[in-house]
Design goal:
By secondary structure, the protein is α/β, with parallel strands linked by helices. The protein is built from 19 helices and 19 strands.
């Protein structure tokens, strides 16, 4: 249905606006707080609901491109939705009553059918007469009611989600397996309460839900209802019921990880991406959960990850390449270091050891508390455990467009080695008057210190003690000053990367 998503911004103010392909699967917006993730979802929903006429004030979404519908299919869908007039009910010429989104509506027949067959030409009509009835907007509160009781209706022509599942053994079994894996509970549909259908959760596999014998009655009597399970079970189940059996072709979800443990956020994203791909639907989500992102990317379905930023009145939008995302997720070192969390921060600073990370992070927090300009707001501090792995963390983050730098002990000059040569080689490129031919040698160490002493760098570097006095005791106040200066240096470096 949706072939392309057009955004207002690109990867920088000088780059073209971002346009991405949107196959049936999931598109996830990530980024720091106040970057426009929830705003993007609101603008997407409003565009689907009312078209481009009310989109002039959009700040994130520029528009959507749709694939033309098949006229025969559109006509068949329309005929299935038609309702006869009630006795004495007036009908305008050329209009017909239909049932859409649970509502009884009178629509202009030809316009209703024409718009989906040429949606990019008649976008306003397409949204207003057709698409709005196939888009579902879910925030934290509304998704808790997705699995509520529904009318059973005529099971020979089911119209509700639970009725469709009750008459489709394959989809019901697939959903039951997913929920069992997630919560250890068996999903079942209770059709024995008047003309309504209810979701139940049992501890054992249910009997045939379409039977009305004693075993089915006893099972449904003992099983838990929706009011007896956690909000996480409600939200997880409700979203998947909509994907497998609901009318919506487009589902918009803000913070889908709400109510869920991180491992369940991973599983929900994985199942959403797979189900959307299988059922031919589009899911758009905004998240702060690295586990949700990881689950979607590792689902096997094509997944779009769009990183949004907004700082100093300038917005950016960048499509994160799946190869780079997979590298971050499949490398045990990068997973254990929490590198994926960098997607949700403005800046990332990589230190060597855990103690280094804790120290510099604490200094940065104190600088921010004191309104010191050397503090780095909304920054994530990570530790790489050693010098050798710092570049393995910094480089993929930079490829994803995340400003990232590192703080490395200056003993790398003394230690030398291949890893030291690589890191120093990159660092010394900033000082063209120093030759890298003696990397790691005492002569190079001396020349580097001489160059640093005359460079326009923070005080911590210019006051670094000579080798003969490096073992001298340094006061705590001096360490604080040095650490503050390093934070300032990191801030300057990060500024040059944005």
């Amino acid at each position: 249905m949706i072939t392309h998503l057009h955004l207002k911004n690109g990867s920088s103010p000088r780059q073209p606006k971002l346009t991405i392909e949107t196959p049936s699967s999931i598109t996830i917006f990530v980024g720091p707080n106040n970057a426009g993730k929830s705003q993007a979802l609101r603008e997407l929903f409003n565009f689907c609901f009312s078209g481009p006429l009310n989109a002039a004030g959009n700040v994130v979404v520029d528009g959507l491109t749709f694939s033309p519908g098949d006229p025969v299919t559109i006509r068949a869908e329309f005929e299935a939705m038609k309702l006869p007039p009630n006795p004495g009910e007036a009908t305008y010429p050329g209009h017909t009553f239909i049932k859409a989104d649970g509502q009884r509506l009178m629509v202009p027949e030809e316009n209703y059918i024409r718009a989906p067959t040429a949606p990019n030409q008649y976008t306003h009509e397409f949204a207003g007469w057709y698409l709005r009835y196939f888009v579902l907007n879910q925030d934290g509160a509304s998704r808790l009611g997705l699995g509520g009781a529904q009318k059973r209706g005529d099971l020979k022509s089911p119209t509700s989600e639970l009725a469709r599942l009750l008459t489709n053994d394959e989809k019901r079994s697939a959903l039951r397996k997913i929920i069992l894996d997630a919560f250890g509970l068996y999903f079942a549909i209770d059709a024995q309460v008047g003309d309504q259908l209810h979701v139940r959760f049992g501890l054992t596999p249910p009997p045939d839900e379409r039977r009305f014998d004693d075993s089915a009655l006893d099972y449904m009597r003992d099983a838990r209802g929706m009011d007896a399970v956690s909000d996480g079970v409600k939200a997880f189940t409700g979203l998947l019921v909509q994907l497998y059996a609901g009318d919506p072709k487009i589902i918009v979800i803000d913070e889908p990880e709400a109510f869920l443990h991180p491992s369940l956020a991973f599983k929900l994203a994985k199942e959403l991406a797979k189900a959307a791909s299988i059922e031919g639907k589009h899911v758009f989500a905004a998240t702060h959960s690295p586990q949700f992102v990881m689950g979607a990317v590792l689902s096997g379905a094509k997944t779009n990850i769009v990183r949004l930023t907004y700082e100093d009145g300038i917005g950016t939008a960048r499509l994160l390449h799946s190869d780079d995302m997979t590298t971050l997720m499949q490398d045990p070192l990068l997973r254990s270091a929490g590198v994926l969390s960098g997607l949700f921060y403005n800046f990332v600073i990589v230190c060597e050891a855990h103690a280094d990370r804790a120290f510099y992070q604490e200094i940065n927090e104190r600088l921010l508390t004191a309104d010191d300009s050397r503090g780095i707001p909304n920054a994530l501090f990570l530790n790489a455990d050693n010098k050798q792995t710092i570049s393995k963390i910094v480089e993929p983050l930079r490829r994803l467009g995340i400003p990232c730098t590192s703080i490395i002990d200056l003993d790398i000059v003394k230690d030398g080695g291949m890893s030291g040569r690589v890191i120093l080689g990159r660092a010394i490129s900033r000082f063209p008057n120093i030759s890298p031919t003696a990397l790691g040698a005492p002569a190079f160490s001396t020349r580097l210190e001489q160059k640093l002493s005359t460079s326009n760098l923070p005080e911590v570097l210019t006051s670094f003690p000579a080798r003969s006095t490096r073992q001298q005791k340094i006061s705590f106040s001096t360490w604080l000053a040095m650490a503050s200066s390093l934070c300032s240096a990191a801030r300057l470096r990060l500024g040059s990367l944005t």
